[in-house]
Amino acid sequence: MERRDIILTAVFGTVGAVGVLVALGLAAWLYLRARRSKQREDDLEEQNENCEGAGSSQQQQQPAKKNGFLNLKTPLISTKALGAQLETTGSPGSKSPASGSGGPAAGGPGPGGEPRTPTAGPQNKQLQNVKGGEHPSKAFLHNRSISLVDMYIDNSEPSENVGQIHFSLEYDFQNTTLILRIMQGKDLPAKDLSGTSDPYVRVTLLPDKKHRLETKIKRRTLNPRWNETFYFEGFPIVKLQSRVLHLHVFDYDRFSRDDSIGEIFLPLCQVDFSEKPSFWKALKPPAKDKCGELLCSLCYHPSNSVLTITLLKARNLKAKDINGKSDPYVKVWLQFGDKRVEKRKTPIFKCTLNPVFNEAFSFNVPWEKIRECSLDVMVMDFDNIGRNELIGRIQLAGKNGSGASETKHWQDMITKPRQTIVQWHRLKPE
Questions:
Q1: How far apart are the first and last CA of the chain?
Q2: Is this model's pTM higher than 0.85 or not?
Q3: H or E segment at 335?
């Protein structure tokens, strides 16, 4: 009897174990099937979103090249010279380019090879869809995230004259396409021994840095005329207004690295596309040391002898850690001549190249000594092991500032007492 019980127990135990394994296998199969189903749905949704941005349904269905366009998962960027158009129309904006071959990237004409002229209907329809009849760009300004656009807004004057660039913008609402026309440059600096330059323009829509376009090179001139048109296709208006237009002018060199002449950043949420605006923009000198920039304010109250510096934020700091980031903080020394008197520090911000400090420090400086003192501002990278590293620094002073921008900032503070003077400064490596 005991032997029978042992056999039955072994049989039922084996059956139970098999049942548990079968149940676990079934559960795992159902889980994997659900994951595959969700992955297919996600892939289909992503494909639909990409197709909506790519253009017509006919283009979505054909992965091969058709009518000069490619069906890509990323927005297509195309360009075409404007020279022939100017010869026939006399102005860049009087007529849309006809069909033809593109420039540095694939593209050129609209679908079917026909001239692409935006119609008023779709544009007006989209304008009316915005609450209260407000233009999309203005509506976006009210709802945008401050951090993205503020990263590229710089209202300070260039520290040196490196010329100007003339360009215009237009948005084709019907085909969700941004049209950029780069007309000319003016008063560019000479980068070659001949006293001239060989300038060209590199175009990107930040934060995307992979798709870059370039104009043709204009030889031996400081006032180039490019007259070229670039198309950024598959950009709905809301998506476009989260981008920043970056125009960077270079001097071409055959046997060495091309020299940077100057650049401009234009957040597209600031542009009213219903006006088809045209711009003359002063080029900013390139950041040679690429340590980043610091936004700070100065204020001096003669009545109580209080000098206040407010460290607002920094942008594009140099990465000091192996993860491609830094742990920045700012150290400020009040100096009289070469003698350091008083030090202040901000908190440390972990793993960022664009910290927002919002820290104000006040120092007691008598009016008769305000022109003799200075502020040594150092942006540091904190390290748990080893010595903290200098990212970049500026010297704010009335006489011996670290640059023209720093000296002007200090002089503006003195000539406008009790007023807060805000300014961006490029950090120096030493």
A1: 94
A2: no
A3: strand 328-336
